[in-house]
Predict the structure.
Amino acid sequence: MYRHAADPWHLAERWYERRKYDLTVAVLPQEHYRRAFEPACSVGELTRRLAVRCDTVLACDRVDDAVSTAQQRTSEFPQVTVRQMTIPEQWPEGTFDLIVLSELLYYLDAATLDSVLEHTVTALEPGGTLATVHWNHPADEHLSTGSGIAETLAQLPGMHLLADHRESDFVLQIHQRLRPDGSIPPTPAEREGLA
């Protein structure tokens, strides 16, 4: 699909997509992140929004043409690196305080999904943020829906659900990794002494 169009899903043009990306970034509980990982970044539209909130962003996609477009669209952000990688086989080194899994998990069979989520939890720092957002309508190429993905994520050990935004079209969730002592990370209001 990327061979015939730089943005085959019109991610930069559609109000639906722009609104969804803006909501995704708006619901992040921390104003600033040190190191973010965004696999399956496609053409980099969400990556651009993450860049203004993060010291560094590692984005990747398995499709070379998508990587090239994402590199062009994020070239003004020196803190963004876009690579061609296939997860979970090519999972990056180190840990992240933000991992974003957007429009990805419903493509994965059960074994691959389990592996990706295991890598995700392991790579997420204590107190770190996992943002997920997925289309919620059945699609021929999808093995699940946003609601189905949410049910799977609810079983993840060591994670706490902070935000659960559901619309007919998509499900957007924010999970936080528990602290080493098992406690829940503070909410945005608690961080600022409001609650």
Summary: DSSP finds six helices and seven strands in the chain. The chain has a mean pLDDT of 94. The CA atoms of residues 9 and 36 lie 24 Å apart. Helices lie at 15-26, 45-51, 64-73, 110-123, 146-153, 188-191.
